[in-house]
Automatic annotation (TrEMBL):
The organism's place on the tree of life at top rank: Eukaryota
UniProt-recorded Gene Ontology molecular function terms: DNA-binding transcription factor activity, RNA polymerase II-specific; zinc ion binding
Segment forming the signal sequence: none
Protein name stated in the entry: Zn(2)-C6 fungal-type domain-containing protein
């Protein structure tokens, strides 16, 4: 039966930097069968362009109430702000 090189090596063959040869009828590669190891494959990274970033609205689009009075249990952003009781 002809041997087939897999597109990507299993984790054991990749760590040993060996060629991963698998038989079409077997679930394990030849090296893992001989060494009695578990033959597992890592998920491959996605290829291609990265998705475009979502742009957030700029600060100018938000409206702030500069006359807001902080309550005693609310913390102001900085110590410049003071609240009246």
């Amino acid at each position: 039966m002809p041997r087939k090189h897999s597109a990507h090596a299993c984790t054991c063959c990749a760590m040993a930097k060996r060629r991963c040869i698998s038989m079409p009828s077997e679930t394990k590669c030849v090296r893992c069968q001989n060494r009695k190891e578990i033959c597992t494959f890592k998920p491959q990274k996605k290829r291609g362009p990265k998705p475009k970033r979502v742009e957030f609205p700029s600060v100018e689009t938000f409206s702030f109430n500069l006359n807001y009075k902080f309550l005693p249990d609310e913390a102001p952003i900085s110590f410049e702000f003071q609240y009246e009781l």
